[in-house]
Specification:
This protein has 14 helices and 22 strands. It has about 500 residues and is an alpha/beta fold. It has 2 domains: about 30-275 and about 475-495, Aldehyde Dehydrogenase, Chain A, domain 1; about 280-465, Aldehyde Dehydrogenase, Chain A, domain 2, CATH 3.40.309.10. It catalyses: succinate semialdehyde + NADP(+) + H2O = succinate + NADPH + 2 H(+); succinate semialdehyde + NAD(+) + H2O = succinate + NADH + 2 H(+).
Length: about 500
């Protein structure tokens, strides 16, 4: 069985993070260039997800503070938009350099507030920083174009790129740094100013990024961070971002249910939206696949972040001819994992982020087992928010993973017989974010890649997200793209200038 932690909980105690630069752990919101609390004076505690010790407290801000942040961003917008692309890019480059310099401290913050292992947190920081580096250069590569006139009285048609204005960014807890930089980097490069709603579970990463942005010279009001607890104030902050006419763009990463709510709340202001919502990624291993390569891919794809990623494999389909070999090798790999506090040496995986996540994972496992599934590895919850990395085989005809994202460390292995059937099963969901498959047949690779109804496909790889390419889904997984040259366009509009003779 995977190694699980014992006697790890330190509820009621305080934890002091060991940081080389202690000012990175900011415990105030950031509005109009000032570190500020909630006007009510209320705060909420942020716990270490592994030990449950308190690592700090941040303001429980609401609609009033959000309006102030939006007003600050709106006031800063004209001057920021008027900067040249090079000037904006140069400042983003300085931020990239600062993030690189403090990457180790930032990784330690991620381990504490999110729970992932130190190795994964360092990987997130490298990934996170790459978006600031990319968009620093994209600020100068934002091209307009011309079109030939078709009317005799027209001399030229010129199409330019215009920044939209204030961008509201609502980010999740599973990548507390990367989801900030992927949105913020694009918005700032485009000439927009931003208001960030930090996730209640992991507010310290966005605050640390804002602190470094302040240190390298970003003008006041350009970047604002609002912190709020789960519940009424969080709902009020999101509603204000949606209904405030000064917010011209809203970017959200989170569940489909919340995305639908935000879309409804934004209807009255007709702002531009981009939503990266839930997924239910199929991972298909064909009979002609390199089984060892597929096992390694499934391990990374399913259990990155303890399964708490929107693009992780939710359903693993394995051809019947290699099912026994794959399941045996995969279970052996999972069995060797070490679960615990991410700062401890040798730990590969951390806890889930909250009790709700643990309960959902346990229910999915229990429902599958009741239906006849076999537990090859794991299957039980541990102390606090820990849950054993789990492998389920021989999934029943109907189980929760068929149409619901587990968002936890449970690998569900389905058996299939034909390409046609497995593609049909893979597509039999409303969402379509990512999909993966392994095959050594080039013709099949093209067929399946085109047939899967998802926004992103990994072919013989489990790593698909990079700073240079567009990230996003189809169907109930949302719309819009982040990263690549498409990312900056999400924060711009096209303006046509028609020149007469």
């Amino acid at each position: 069985m995977p190694t699980m932690p014992k006697n790890i909980l330190k509820e009621g105690s305080n934890e002091t993070l060991t940081l080389k630069h202690k000012a990175l752990l900011q415990q105030q919101g950031y509005v109009d260039g000032a570190w500020t609390g909630a006007r009510s004076g209320k705060t909420f505690d942020v716990l270490n997800k592994a030990t449950h010790a308190k690592i700090g407290a941040v303001p429980d801000m609401g609609a009033e503070e959000t309006r102030a942040a939006i007003a600050a961003a709106a006031a800063a917008f004209p001057a920021w938009a008027a900067q040249t692309g090079k000037a904006r890019g140069d400042l983003l480059t300085k931020l990239f350099q600062a993030l690189q310099e403090h990457a180790e401290d930032l990784a330690h913050i991620i381990v504490a507030e999110n729970g992932k292992s130190l190795a994964e947190a360092k990987g997130e920081m490298a990934y996170s920083n790459s978006f600031i580096e990319w968009f620093a250069a994209e600020a100068q590569r934002s091209y307009g174009h011309t079109a030939q006139p078709t009317l005799p009285a027209v001399r030229a048609n010129v199409i330019t790129k215009q920044p939209l204005g204030v961008a509201g960014l609502i980010t999740p807890w599973n990548f507390p740094a990367a989801m900030i930089t992927r949105k913020m980097g694009a918005a700032l490069a485009a000439g927009c100013t931003v208001v960030i709603k930090a996730p209640a579970e992991t507010p310290f990463s966005p605050l640390a990024i804002a602190y470094l942005a302040e240190q390298v010279g970003f003008p006041k009001g350009t970047i604002n961070v609002v912190t709020c607890a789960k519940g009424e104030t969080e709902a009020a902050v999101g509603k204000e971002m949606c209904e405030n006419k000064a917010v011209k763009k809203l970017s959200f990463t989170g569940s489909t249910r919340v995305g639908q709510l935000l879309m409804s709340q934004s209807a009255s202001t007709l702002k531009k939206l981009s939503f990266e919502l839930g997924g239910n990624a199929p991972f298909i291993v064909f009979a002609d696949a390199d089984v060892d390569k597929a096992v390694e891919g499934a391990l990374a794809c399913k259990l990155r972040g303890s399964g708490q990623t929107c693009i992780c494999a939710n359903r693993i389909f394995v051809h019947e001819d290699i099912y026994a070999e794959f399941s045996s090798k995969f279970a052996k790999k999972v069995d060797a994992l070490v679960v615990g506090y991410g700062m401890q040496e040798g730990v590969t995986h951390g806890p889930l982020v909250n009790q709700m996540g643990v309960d959902k994972v346990q229910k999915h496992v229990d429902d599958c087992v009741k239906g006849g599934a076999k537990v090859l590895v794991g299957g039980k919850k541990g102390e606090g928010f820990f849950f054993e990395p789990t492998v389920l085989a021989d999934l029943p005809a109907s189980c929760p993973m068929d149409d619901e994202e587990t968002f936890g460390p449970v690998a569900a292995l389905y058996k299939f017989t034909s390409e046609e059937d497995v593609v049909k099963q893979a597509n039999d969901v409303d969402v379509g974010l990512a999909g993966y498959f392994y095959t050594e047949n080039v013709s099949r690779a093209w067929r399946v890649a085109e047939a899967l109804q998802v926004g992103m496909v990994g072919i013989n790889t489990a790593i698909i997200s990079q700073n240079t390419v567009p990230f996003g889904g189809v169907g109930f997984s949302g719309f819009g793209r982040e990263g690549g040259r498409d990312g900056i366009a999400e924060y711009q509009s096209d303006k046509l200038m028609v020149w007469g003779k």
